[in-house]
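Dissemination and training. As part of the outreach component of the grant, students in the summer workshop were shown how a complex can be specified as a set of sequence lines and then modelled as a single object. The example used during the hands-on session is reproduced here so that future cohorts can follow it. Participants entered these lines:
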Amino acid sequence: MDLSDYFPIWNKLTIQEREVLQNSAGKRFAQKGTILHNGSADCVGLLLVQTGQLRAYILSDEGKEVTLYRLFPGDVCLFSASCIMTNIQFELIIEAEKDSDMWVIPAEIYHNLMENSASLANYTNEIMAARFSEVMWLIEQIMWKSLDKRLAAFLVEEAELEGTSSLRITHEKIANHLGSAREVVTRMLRYFQGEGLVALTRGNIEILDKKALQSLL
Amino acid sequence: MDLSDYFPIWNKLTIQEREVLQNSAGKRFAQKGTILHNGSADCVGLLLVQTGQLRAYILSDEGKEVTLYRLFPGDVCLFSASCIMTNIQFELIIEAEKDSDMWVIPAEIYHNLMENSASLANYTNEIMAARFSEVMWLIEQIMWKSLDKRLAAFLVEEAELEGTSSLRITHEKIANHLGSAREVVTRMLRYFQGEGLVALTRGNIEILDKKALQSLL
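and obtained this result:
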């Protein structure tokens, strides 16, 4: 796979801009557990995930973590280049949650291109808006919803009722059970999947870590 | 004051772009309490605050509020034009917290300009990064700071905003700001009163020891 495959707006860039990106981008492999970015201590650049999985989280003074979001193949990690925007005043940590391959575009190169390319600046806007939306979702979960608990309880109970850890049930049906909306349930299930609690396939939910689900209750 | 005074990057725009902005921008006055933007129900446009104060908050299904940030004269409200970015997938409400004057730039006009202007797109990026930073600060407060610190921070900030140490505000309203319950806030305020930090009378909170409050932060 070429660098161009990771830029949805590749065809909106000039030939010169493409060349600059192509020539400056490097490949990097990170073993599971590697810290790729640590707050304002570095400014690695944009990471374009090819394989594996990255995790963005914040860390309290007391060492507590909160996962903000995850990045999967095809996703772009913007905040590992947070120095390119003066108004980013928060510190987050990016780690390789699985063995990961990625492209790295140096922060300064990207910044220079973005200054003059409306396409690249708007693309950057959309990446940030997507991450912002994930963080807003998280705030709402933290403040108001106990849906995670209710969903975990439902899955555990259902598995016991059916005598199997492989549940054949639609998200729609679960939403009905919980008096919620299908999209909301799907999103939470994907969050659970990201946490390694369940595996989702079409029409099926496999419970991988029942103890962890029960610990949510 | 002219529209140009509210655009830090005015001189980076072309004469044509300035004309488009100037011709499309309208003035608006909003009385205290007016809802200027309500989630995805509208897409008013960019608001450039001239006088007064706006508040951005989210609302739970049960009607609980959490204040995300405030906007003051010179600030730009981007999310009242959230429709211009497809990846903004959250709903927030913008209200005039004081009688406010503002410029309104229609969302579509701004969007069209931004598509072709790297300067405007980068400027938009910086606005979003600033709001993102405020929300990240809030997450850290919610997750890790205890209510005494958040309440102390709120009282100190409010006193500075209002230019008085005598705050006319209900416990209910403070609870909404902090995403807490009235009883919890009342209890903490009484604790503060017991410590000699504030004096409580009906509908009023007198700050007696600002330094001690600040030392809690």
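Chain B touches chain A at residues 58, 60-62, 64, 66, 85-90, 92, 114-118, 120-122, 124-133, 135-140, 142-144, 179 (CB under 8 Å). Students were then asked to discuss how this feature might be tested experimentally.
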